[in-house]
Amino acid sequence: MKGDDHAPIDILLVEDDPGDVRLTREALQEGKLGNTLHVVQDGVQAMAFLQKLGPYSHAPTPDLILLDLNLPGKDGRQVLAEIKADPGLRRIPIVILTTSASEQDVLATYDLHANCFVVKPVGFAEFLAVVEAIEHFWLTITRLPPHDSPK
Questions:
Q1: Three-class SS state of 14
Q2: Residue 130 and residue 126: Cα distance in Å, rounded?
Q3: Which of 12, 86, 14 is nearest to 43 (CA)?
């Protein structure tokens, strides 16, 4: 079962900044846990991935979502609200990973049932450390919900 014994998991990164995608990928590779990172660049693609629509018809259900708030088109707040309103998706842990440090964003995303809110550091080493800490916490300390559990 995923989430047990540090088995590799599927992570969906919803991020429009190519530099942040690269840094996140590098940080996860450093962890050497063999997780699979799937990347989409906006909220519309994120929902298509999660609902297995169009080119994402064979996409896995992710075990963890790293969600930026400031996305083109459908923003991260809208994506978060849609995921948490869907009985088939709401148990997927969502880590908000954003440049915003706004108290309003923190409160709004927790009101929408985000699992945690992390402000992206500006520096390269700090960014890598934050992603590695997220990976360590969510993949070695916590137990993730199985996909086949009753809704």
A1: strand
A2: 6
A3: 14
Can you give the pTM of this predicted structure? 0.91
| Secondary structure (3-state) at 115 | coil
Decide: 102 and 77 in contact? Cβ < 8 Å. Answer: no
pLDDT in tens, 30-58: 766 678 999 999 999 999 999 999 999 99
Contact 37, 62 (CB under 8 A): no
CA dihedral over 120, 19, 24, 42, signed as positive or negative: positive
Full set of structural domains in the chain with CATH: 10-141 (3.40.50.2300)
Residues sharing a CB contact under 8 Å with residue 97, sequence separation 6 or more, in sequence order: 15, 24, 66, 67, 68, 118, 120, 130, 131, 134
**Stretch 7-19: mean pLDDT:** 91
Exposed (0-12), middle (13-18) or buried (19+): which is 66, by Cβ within 10 Å? Answer: buried
